[in-house]
């Protein structure tokens, strides 16, 4: 619970984030609206919706945070209007469809924390026709990064402080999505708008973002930086761009290269990022402008697991989880007239 408290406190003290949600909610919520807060955490967004005039809020969360949300609603005297559902959103069922979906699962790169599939599923199963969503869309940006601190994240397992037997773990660090807070001078290229995601649309199995980064100064790139602009609704926006003065308190993403990529002024560097919704696989690539060679990376390589778990799907043994076993027992029972 201590980790849960620490994580959610950081959300509650981010005044810029809360003020933007407050303004968006005041413009989107109508009196008497029924609202679902997806992955509600401590329930702050749902409580804000009630304060803005919503008649009923369901807060859904499969973690221990749901107990904090429930007790907070009780203490605030809102327990009759705030219904807590302690379940994963994809498995949660509601007694009725709602007018508004709200969710703050906006990742460091916007789409890397499951919000696209989360809201797509909830829209199909929970939202009334013509219902509203907060947020509405995401714009994703990519840029080249030149940073000793970020290079240090990749090389941390090969320092003299780490026993040599563990230096092989550097490969895992290279294949990891790193949460960072960039200084503006660590952004080595102009940011490129790599894609826009409409959260009211059906979610594809994966999202692919591509950009061509223009190099203005000879030097090196240590990796790709990514962040978002988010349209919350009602004309309100929030961003975690390291170049924005009014950014919210949310990390950006760093996707590293194994070795620094040497570039010259005038080069055009092709990069891409692929985000899988269902398997949480994040992959990225860069084309060396000097050789044309493409370097490919993935967080699949940073997931320590048994050899059997790394087998290709067509060769791996399928096993039922507990839910599947229970369903198998139910379906095997003889039917009676």
From TrEMBL:
The record's GO molecular-function terms, alphabetically, read:
histone methyltransferase activity; protein-arginine omega-N asymmetric methyltransferase activity
Keywords in alphabetical order, please.
Methyltransferase, Transferase
GO process terms (BP): methylation
Q: Which Pfam families match?
A: PrmA
Which E.C. number(s) belong to this protein? Answer: 2.1.1.319
Protein name (Swiss-Prot/TrEMBL): Protein arginine N-methyltransferase 1
Annotated source species: Novosphingobium hassiacum
């Amino acid at each position: 619970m201590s980790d849960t408290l620490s994580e959610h406190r950081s959300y509650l003290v981010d005044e810029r984030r809360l003020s933007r949600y407050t303004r968006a909610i005041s413009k989107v919520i109508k009196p008497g609206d029924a609202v679902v807060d997806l992955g509600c955490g401590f329930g702050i967004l749902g409580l804000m919706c009630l304060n803005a005039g919503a008649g009923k809020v369901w807060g859904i969360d499969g973690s221990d945070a749901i107990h904090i949300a429930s007790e907070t609603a009780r203490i605030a005297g809102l327990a009759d209007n705030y219904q807590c559902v302690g379940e994963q959103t994809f498995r949660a069922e509601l007694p009725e469809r709602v007018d508004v979906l709200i969710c703050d699962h906006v990742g460091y790169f916007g789409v890397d924390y499951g919000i696209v599939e989360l809201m797509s599923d909830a829209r199909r199963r929970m939202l009334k026709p013509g219902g509203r969503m907060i947020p509405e869309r995401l714009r994703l940006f990519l840029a080249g990064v030149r940073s000793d601190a970020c290079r240090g994240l990749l090389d941390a397992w090969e320092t003299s402080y780490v026993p040599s037997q563990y230096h092989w773990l550097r490969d895992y660090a290279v294949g990891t999505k790193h949460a960072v807070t960039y200084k503006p001078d660590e952004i080595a290229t102009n940011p490129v708008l790599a894609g826009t995601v409409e959260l009211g649309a059906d979610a594809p199995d994966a999202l692919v973002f591509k950009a061509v980064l223009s190099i203005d100064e000879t030097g090196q790139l240590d990796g790709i930086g990514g962040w978002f602009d988010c349209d919350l609704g009602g004309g309100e926006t929030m961003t975690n761009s390291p170049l924005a003065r009014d950014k919210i308190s949310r990390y950006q993403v760093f996707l590293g290269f194994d070795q620094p990529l040497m570039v010259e002024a005038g080069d055009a560097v092709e990069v891409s990022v692929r985000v899988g919704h269902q398997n949480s696989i994040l992959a990225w690539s860069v084309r060396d402008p000097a050789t044309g060679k493409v370097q490919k990376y993935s967080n699949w390589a940073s997931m320590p697991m048994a050899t059997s778990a790394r087998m290709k799907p067509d060769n791996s043994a399928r096993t039922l989880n507990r839910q599947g076993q229970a369903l198998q027992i139910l379906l095997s029972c003889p039917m009676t007239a």
